[in-house]
TrEMBL record, chain A:
PROSITE patterns: TPR. This is DEBR0S5_05776g1_1. InterPro entries: TPR-like_helical_dom_sf, TPR_2, TPR_rpt. TPR repeats lie at residues 104-137, 276-309, 419-452, 453-486. Residues 556-579 are annotated as: Disordered. PANTHER family: CELL DIVISION CYCLE 16,23,27, CELL DIVISION CYCLE PROTEIN 16 HOMOLOG.
From TrEMBL, chain B:
The gene is CDC23. It comes from Dekkera bruxellensis. Residues 9-283 form the Cdc23 domain. The lineage of its organism: Eukaryota, Fungi, Dikarya, Ascomycota, Saccharomycotina. PANTHER family: CELL DIVISION CYCLE 16,23,27, CELL DIVISION CYCLE PROTEIN 23 HOMOLOG. This is DEBR0S1_08570g1_1. InterPro entries: APC8, TPR-like_helical_dom_sf, TPR_rpt.
Length: 579, 574
């Protein structure tokens, strides 16, 4: 507050006190309380309004509730506001002055109090009531949406039931604006329609809120680069728009923009030293450069400043997940999932943690829960594929991985996720003995990246089983070139070389002998043509032999997949950061 | 080739030199320009006539015949729109600011601009990779990857999808092929390069890329057949010439010499009498046929023709090394150092010189320098491997050889070297595999077969060993008593006395031509012992008494046999 403003308030309060002492009218008391409230003298305002004569007035109750909230006396505040909405039946009173109905504000206040008390179910109900009472009560709607309190279906339901008539002539506009804010999982079509109409009919093309909604959509679709560019655009418009930061920071993390993260965090720290967003930014930066301990500290600070801020909780949980501290990670993810029932990410991460802990049942439960919220995330589908693979249900694994592949193509997601899907599909087909398909998928992985050594060793194993010994040896060499300590590849290579000696060597010599003897005859020296050439063994026997030899190592064969699935999970945690 | 055809070829080559330069494919452009200038020079009158004709066609508004694929009006329009940006980007490229070049072309749609954008991205990635990869043979060396590869291939994929599943620009196809090679997708790379070449065959870089993607001769001949069946290459004489270049290079690289190759080379030399490339190919053909003197002569003439040309001089130094021409190699080293000390070829020449002086450490240093200057200096890896073998550092040798075969899997010397290095380490299973690879590349070389036979023997696979040695015998140009003796001893291992005797006799027979050697003496001794056993005293005496060569122990033993056989003979006679 500026000194100048303080002086005005001072004068005002003196005047009002004089009036009040003269009239002793509740209206004047309300007025005086308002002045106290804006001065920050919450206790004074509260004391003033605590009398039986104020019980009747809704506005007085609202104000005293607000004061108690500021004083962090939540139970008392709830007493004043009332535990439930008394106006349930008759909220169709039309407000004449065009402002927000007081009843709605009261409901919103109740919601805030419940949220502070960590009673999210009740808070959700109250917010919903607030919006239902007055559709213009945007604060309540925003709380609902930005904290993902509702599942996508509930959100849709809410918007379709709202009474937009209250908004006078702008019913359509408000409805469209609300639609753009809905979660982006299932409603892509609706969102695009609404966005288009807002742009065309209301000329809101350059509106920041609309662009913010767009960044959410892009982020959910894993189009990090596009999302990042839009975020930058928003930031270039109004210098520091705090709402854009969660998406912006995550995108920077995803695309490896460490330097920009550093700058953003510093900028925030200069301008908003006390905001939770600042601490989130710093935490994300430390996380991106691999300083997990520092990251954890800053994430936790952010979550202390705003306990209902999900990204901070998820980041906090990630710091445990990368270090393999499953228990702590799980409890942090669980908090996040309680805060955001409408987001699929916390449950997905929970599922991933349980999968790493080999607790298949719980993992399955959580992943399915996540699937119920968002059925298109390739990462989630990939995890489900891995889950069924570990369970040995190859058919289901294949189905989910194929779905993941499909949606990753639809959503144009990053190459890293895409590679691990192909890799996992390759493993599934290998186990199903559909070698050709497995090879195609492994090849896809190799096209996109240099690949891990296990891709090469898996391919080596496949080719060995198919009887292409030489090719297999080449691939196993590549595996060892990447990771020279790969025990599986080493063992496979020794096996392959043994087969090479036992089977291929004589064949190799035979094949070449035939052709060359035609070219050059040296029979004057070697009078007897070599008669003891064994007839080439038919290929059936070969593959039989190879199979027998491989039986000895088949336990290894199932092993690599287990190992690298673990790796995949680890990677996935790294791939997905705070949302 | 008659004059009009030659003029056509000139046209095509000069067009390709400038087009390739526009695409910043400098070495391919250099090749085309060198080829153009290596052709038979036109006389003054011919030049003047050409000039007049050109002026006429300008007046008539005829456009010159072009070999570039036709472009649609829309493409031309796009190219026009992109012109300014393209100029800017090109100048950035020339200043080697690759990232800036690719970002300057953002949003450009024309094929040339897209090519330049992606190509500069590729080069920038290569440079970053080089920066990351550290010193030669250090821990991280060779494991880093071009960071932009996946992005480039993604964009190329999008372009392909946009263009109804096919790229139509030969240069984009070439780039796609290069990228596919980098990501080890060889079959697709070959296909893309093939497509690029059918659209525009005057890009030597593309031919070279295709060549390096071919792993064995049967693949290579399959491709040759495919080109030969392509109607474009049969109908157009200029296309045919390019294919011929490819053909002889393939035959040279896979050590396939036939009269046709020699004929083709002569044909090309008639068209391009002053083109060093053709001469170098001739030299390499002679070198591969172990005709070092001829190769040396040709290289001498190349050096006279173009003394400042450093390309392929490393090969020349190899020839001089094999011939042990120390002074000439020293001259070459001094000369190349004077021309440019910071070229990988120069470093190879110097390294060869040091190697010949038995200064292996220095040689290794120079090979490392060559590789630091140019990652693609393939022969340096193999030669460095040889140096490490000299220093008895098997592990470093293996690493070098392995990198050599990674870079060029057609290098039989590297495969053979790998086999040898593993044999030293007593890992015969491994060395057998490498010998097989070497042998597949050079089936007409008895050394390969001997190596396989030796390895099989060590692994107790006598049957295979015998077969391999027989094979060695059949490809060897002259009879080798060593192999004969080896075969005999293998049969002895199997207890097949009849065959042992046969080969021992064959081995001994060589004494008549070559004089006594260790093997023939041993064979003689064995035969003597054998005859003793079968109580054929006369023969035993004959064999044993003629043994003059070998260890003192052997000679002692032979004397004893001779004495005993003599006594028995006397007993018999009495």
């Amino acid at each position: 507050m500026t000194p100048y403003f303080n002086i005005i308030m001072q004068r005002q309060s003196i005047l009002v006190i004089k009036f009040f002492t003269m009239t002793n009218d509740p209206n004047d008391a309300f007025w005086l309380a308002q002045v106290y409230y804006s001065k920050g003298d919450y206790q004074m305002a509260r004391n003033l309004l605590s009398g039986s004569q104020f019980e009747e007035s809704v506005s007085c109750r609202y104000l005293s509730g607000l004061c108690l909230l500021k004083l962090e006396k939540y139970d008392e505040a709830l007493d004043v506001v009332g535990e439930s909405n008394p106006f349930k039946k008759d909220h169709h009173v039309k407000n004449t002055d065009g402002g927000i109905k007081l009843e709605a504000s009261l409901c919103y206040l109740r919601g805030v109090i419940y949220a502070r008390q960590n009673n999210f179910e009740k808070a959700k109900e109250s917010y919903k009531e607030a919006v239902e009472v007055d559709v213009k009560c945007f604060e309540a709607f925003h709380e609902l949406i930005s904290n993902s309190m509702l599942t996508p279906d509930e959100e849709l339901n809410l918007v379709s039931h709202l009474d937009f008539e209250d908004a006078d002539n702008n019913a359509d506009l408000v409805k469209l604006l609300y639609t753009t804010l809905l979660s982006k999982y299932g409603n892509v079509h609706k969102f695009e329609n609404a966005e288009q109409r807002l742009k065309d009919e209301y000329n809101l093309e350059e509106n920041v809120d609309l662009m913010l909604a767009r960044t959410d959509l892009l982020y959910v679709q894993c189009r990090f680069q596009d999302c990042l560019e839009l975020c930058r655009k928003i930031l270039s418009k109004g210098d520091l728009n705090l709402q854009v930061f969660p998406n912006y920071l995550s995108c920077l993390y995803e695309t490896g923009g460490k330097n920009e993260l550093f700058l953003a965090a510093h900028k925030l720290a200069e301008n908003y030293p006390n905001s939770y967003i600042t601490w989130l930014a710093i935490g994300t930066y430390y996380f991106s450069i691999g300083k997990v301990n520092e990251a954890r500290q800053f994430f936790s600070r952010a979550s202390i400043l705003n306990p209902s801020f999900g990204p901070a909780w998820i980041g906090f949980a990630h710091t445990f997940a990368v270090e393999g501290e499953h228990e702590q990670a799980i409890s942090a993810y669980a908090t996040a999932s309680r805060l955001f029932p409408g987001s699929h990410l916390p449950t997905l991460f929970l599922g991933m943690q349980y999968l790493q802990m080999k607790n298949i049942t719980l993992a399955q439960e959580y992943l399915n829960l996540s699937l119920g919220i968002c059925s298109l995330d390739p990462l989630l589908l990939n995890e489900l594929g891995v889950l069924y693979y570990n369970e040995g249900d190859l058919n289901k694994a294949e189905v989910f991985l194929q779905k993941a592949l499909l949606s990753s193509q639809n959503l144009d997601s990053g190459a890293k996720a895409w590679c691990s899907i192909h890799c996992n599909l390759g493993h599934v087909y290998r186990r199903e003995k559909r070698y050709r398909l497995a090879i195609t998928h492994f090849n896809e992985v190799l096209h996109m990246s240099k690949g891990e050594s296990d891709v090469y060793s898996s391919m080596g194993l496949i080719y060995l089983k198919l009887g292409h010994v030489s090719h297999s040896i080449g691939l196993l060499h590549s595996a060892l070139a990447i990771n020279s300590t790969d025990a599986i590849a080493t063992e496979l290579l020794n096996k392959a070389l043994e087969i090479n000696l036992k089977l291929r060597n004589s064949k190799f010599i035979d094949e070449n002998t035939g052709s060359v003897l035609e070219n050059k005859t040296k029979e004057q020296y070697v009078k007897r043509r070599p008669s003891n050439f064994s007839t080439p063994k038919d290929s059936k026997n070969d593959s039989q032999f190879i199979r027998e030899s491989i039986d000895n190592i088949s336990f290894v064969a199932s092993d690599p997949s287990g190992v690298d699935n673990d790796n995949d999970n680890g990677d996935d945690v790294m791939e997905l950061d705070t949302d | 080739m008659d004059l009009t055809e030659q003029l056509g070829l000139r046209n095509a080559l000069s067009e390709s030199a400038s087009t390739l330069r526009d695409h910043h494919l400098y070495s391919a452009s250099k090749w085309s320009a060198e080829a153009l200038n290596g052709m038979k020079p036109l006389s003054e009158e011919q030049k003047f006539a050409l000039y007049q004709k050109k002026g006429q066609s300008k007046v008539n508004g005829e456009s010159l015949h072009t070999y570039l694929p036709k472009i649609t009006p829309e493409c031309e329009l796009q190219r026009f729109y992109d012109m300014d940006k393209l100029t800017l980007a090109s100048s950035y490229f020339d200043c080697k600011e690759f990232d800036r070049c690719s970002s300057a072309l953002k949003g450009c749609k024309s094929d040339t601009a897209t090519f330049l954008r992606l190509y500069s991205m590729y080069l920038s990635g290569e440079r970053k990779r080089d920066l990351d990869s550290g010193a030669v043979l250090s821990e991280n060396n060779g494991n880093s990857q071009n960071p932009y590869l996946s992005e480039i291939s993604k964009q190329l994929k999008q372009l392909t999808e946009a263009g109804s599943g096919r790229l139509t620009d030969p240069f984009l196809l070439y780039l796609a092929g290069v990228v596919a090679t980098c990501s080890k997708d060889i079959p697709r790379a070959r296909e893309l390069l093939y497509q690029s070449l059918t659209l525009y065959p005057f890009n030597w870089g593309c031919w070279k890329e295709l060549l390096s993607s071919l792993g064995n001769f049967s693949d290579a001949s399959a491709f040759l057949l495919r080109f030969a069946r392509n109607s474009r290459f049969t109908e157009n004489k200029c296309y045919r010439v390019m294919l011929l270049f490819f053909e002889i290079t393939i035959h040279q690289e896979f050590f396939q010499t036939s009269p046709e190759v020699v004929n083709d080379l002569q044909f090309l030399e008639e068209i391009f009498p002053k083109f060093s490339f053709v001469k170098v190919q001739q030299a390499l053909v002679s070198y591969n046929a172990l005709d070092y003197a001829a190769a040396e002569n040709i290289f001498d003439s190349v050096l006279v023709l173009d003394p400042l040309r450093l390309d392929d001089m490393d090969t020349y130094s190899n020839i001089l090394y094999v011939m042990e021409k120390k002074s000439k190699l020293s001259f070459l080293a001094q000369h190349t150092l004077k021309v440019d000390p910071l070229r990988s070829e120069t470093c190879c020449v110097v390294a060869n010189y040091y190697s010949l002086k038995f200064d292996h450490q220095k040689a290794i240093m120079y090979y490392k320098r060559a590789l630091a200057l140019n990652k693609r200096c393939l022969s340096a890896w193999t030669l460095m491997g040889h140096e490490f073998v000299e220093l008895k550092n098997s592990h470093a040798a293996i690493e070098s050889y392995r990198r050599a075969v990674d870079a060029n899997n057609k290098d039989f010397r590297a495969w053979y070297g790998l086999g040898q290095a593993y044999e030293v380490l007593d890992m015969n299973l491994y060395s057998l595999y490498y010998y097989q690879r070497a042998c597949a590349l050079r089936p007409m070389d008895k050394r390969m077969w001997q190596a396989i036979g030796n390895c099989s023997e060590k692994l107790n696979e006598y049957e295979d060993a015998i077969k391999a040695y027989k094979k060695a015998l059949s490809v060897s140009p002259e009879v080798d008593p060593v192999i004969m003796y080896k075969l005999a001893s293998l049969y002895e291992e199997k207890g097949d006395v009849k065959n042992v005797k046969f080969y021992m006799l064959q081995c001994l027979k060589e004494e008549e031509y070559e004089g006594a050697t260790d093997e023939t003496s041993k064979a003689r001794l064995w035969l003597a012992k054998h005859e003793m056993q079968v109580k054929n005293w006369q023969h035993a005496y004959n064999y044993a008494s003629e043994l003059m060569h070998g260890t003192s122990h052997d000679i002692e033993e032979a004397r004893a046999i001779a004495r005993e056989a003599g006594e028995r003979l006397r007993e018999q006679n009495e």
